[in-house]
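New to this. Explain the following:
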Amino acid sequence: MSESPDYHDMTKAEKSAFMKKRRGRNIAIALTVAGLCLLFYVVSIVRIGMNG
């Protein structure tokens, strides 16, 4: 992974843009993980229902 940027060298606008991009990336990762959890849950319920 790349090193975290040095916040002391950034202007307020650069820091704000960086944090906005980071937040968007974190939201995308969280939605992906939540989607996978939901998918695994649904698949598990369907497989249990087929055996019952």
